[in-house]
Amino acid sequence: MTQVEPSSISQIFKISDLNKKNQIRQALEAIGPTSRKDEPYCDYVFVFEDKPERLVVKQYQKGTLMIQGKAAHLYQVISHMVAPFLTANDQVALNKEADGSPHDPQSVPLPHIGTDESGKGDYFGPMVIAGVMLEEAARPKLTALGIRDSKKLADGKNRELAAKIRKLCVQRYYEVVLPPERYNSLYTDFKKEGKNLNHMLAWGHARAIESLLGYADCKWAVADQFGNERYIQSRLMKKSSGLTLIQQHKGERFLAVAAASILARDRFLDYMDRLSRTYEITLPKGSSNIVVGIGKQFVAKHGTENLEKVAKLHHKTTEKVL
Question: What is the spatial distance between Cα 139 and Cα 135, in angstroms, rounded to a whole number?
Fold first, then answer.
């Protein structure tokens, strides 16, 4: 008989009915889990193994049921047992709801990590990727602050909120700052490998996630959509095994992502101020004609060789400046 190769499995269901939860648990118990684990915010965690196949089934207290691993026959067995208790309306796609609408922020279990970046489209200044781990205790406090996408906030308000986020989320935030020189060097390295800016962004998001996982255990992460989900997944290391990553357009709908966007923007603005003081010239944001004019002034004052210290050289703006 031909053996079917195991494939990656990742399914999420929203189970709000207590009776249905109990029925699914009893069905899984009847199969006989290979092992059981205790994890925060989970009613149970069952591990099923039949090498080389392995599936982990987690029931979160908030209602999310997750089936994840690599399996073939083993998945068929588990599906057969739990299918009678599930409907198409229960299933949630990894990046979208079953009906194609955006993933519901409330369906992602806590704690979860949100990441976002700032400075990507700005010619001058660094690129900053920030991550925030959202926990149950911090959620109402952050919500009360009026946290939202940094692009919808004035710079002054953004900086005010960033200070409050850092105070509320001690050891639950992390910022990856790529100064222009480092950014230009990294971009060159990625380009030599045949990779683009999205791969570099993924590297930064993965570093923020990995660093936060060094502070506390977390099984979920949400990032704003900027490329193929595999970009970030491929950059995550062993510490992130078992992490479920959701990438979504307008990811700032998630409180953790919005908080991360504010931290990233604040750090970007702070670095821009420092560069402006160092070179005694006010460096503008964006990539408009004003930016080109200031770029020409900078080169006239400090020389072409210093442009890499303040600007992202791969931008088309460089051609206009030079």
Answer: 6
Residue with tokens 């850092």: 166
Over residues 87-138, the pLDDT tens digits come to 766 765 444 433 333 445 666 788 999 999 999 989 999 999 999 999 999 9
Q: Distance between CA 200 and CA 235 in Å, rounded? A: 10
DSSP assigned state of 265: H
Integer Cα distance of 314 and 184 in angstroms: 8
Q: What are 186-217's pLDDT values in tens digits?
A: 999 999 998 888 889 989 999 999 999 988 88
User: Quick check: 220 and 42 in contact, CB under 8 A?
Assistant: no
Q: Which amino acid is at 306?
A: N
| Joined tokens for residue 178 | 């790529």
For residue 117, what are the β-bridge partners?
129
Residues 6+ apart with CB under 8 A from 243: 209, 213, 218, 219, 220, 221, 236
Instruction: Answer yes or no: is 131 within a domain.
Output: yes
Same domain assignment for residues 155 and 207: yes
Q: Which domain range does residue 317 map to?
A: 278-321
The answer to whether residues 175 and 129 touch, using CB atoms and an 8 Å cutoff, is yes
With 0-12 / 13-18 / 19 or more C-beta atoms within 10 angstroms meaning exposed / middle / buried, residue 180 is buried
